[in-house]
Recover the amino acids of this structure.
């Protein structure tokens, strides 16, 4: 279990799509994913 990685191999497809469509950074895209319930890793805090 590491930190969230910026590579497309580890990010959900939805996050990759967000980054490509809106030019979001990996951090913002992963935050959006957490809020959407895609990445529960940090959302439990």
């Amino acid at each position: 279990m590491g930190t969230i990685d910026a590579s497309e191999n580890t990010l959900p497809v939805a996050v990759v799509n967000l980054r490509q469509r809106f030019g979001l950074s990996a951090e913002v895209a992963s935050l959006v994913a957490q809020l959407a319930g895609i990445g529960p890793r940090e959302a439990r805090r």
